[in-house]
Write a structure and sequence with these properties.
CATH architecture: Beta Barrel
Number of domains: 1
Distance between the termini: 81 Å
Structural class: alpha+beta
Number of helices: 2
Largest sheet: 8 strands, antiparallel, barrel
Radius of gyration: 23 Å
CATH class: Mainly Beta
Low-confidence stretches: 1-24
Number of strands: 9
Shape: globular
Strand order of the largest sheet: 1-2-3-4-5-7-8-9
């Protein structure tokens, strides 16, 4: 191999390796290599802020409105009670699943619905039940985020842990 090709091969190897870093190195066959970055302190603080109850409202077609009470738990589960109001009457549905954040992204994996106190699973093979949102604002009182799929923006305000819908 001539000197020019050797330098080119060496340069290519350096460029490829420069982008590769690992948190640990495997020393024995079967060792697990952890290349997953730990969340920053600010990312963990943002996640912790999201735990609790949040209330959001949005207009719908035909003068109706949708109110959502989201409860996110520290263990990564959530429950959202949706009420679709048409005047004084409403329809209610309860969605349950998993949630988390990664960098500027909030995500949900909808696992199913609660119907008359019983869990009804969704079809986890369907992309429809997975959502990603860009976090626009998150502080102690306001959580605003935007759907990556649709661009729809949602704004929620924190409510007390004892907050419940009234009839």
């Amino acid at each position: 191999m001539n000197a020019c090709l050797r330098r080119s091969a060496l340069l290519s190897a350096v460029v490829v390796m420069a982008g590769c870093t690992m948190a640990t190195t495997a020393t024995e066959p079967g060792d697990v290599i952890d290349a997953h970055a730990k969340p920053s302190a600010s990312e963990q603080e943002r996640r912790d802020l999201m735990v609790g109850k949040w209330l959001g409202e949005a207009p719908m077609d035909g003068g109706r409105s949708r109110v959502a009470l989201a409860e996110r738990n520290n263990n990564g589960t959530y429950r959202i009670t949706f009420r679709m109001y048409d005047g004084a009457s409403y329809e209610e549905s309860v969605e349950v699943g998993l949630w988390g954040i990664a960098g500027p992204t909030y995500f949900t994996l909808m696992r199913g619905w609660m119907v008359d106190g019983e869990f009804r699973p969704s079809d986890a093979s369907q992309a429809y039940y997975s959502d990603a949102y860009r976090i626009d604002q998150l502080d102690a009182t306001t959580f605003a985020y935007r759907s990556v799929k649709t661009g729809t923006r949602y704004v929620n305000r924190r409510v007390g842990d004892d907050f419940e819908f009234s009839d």
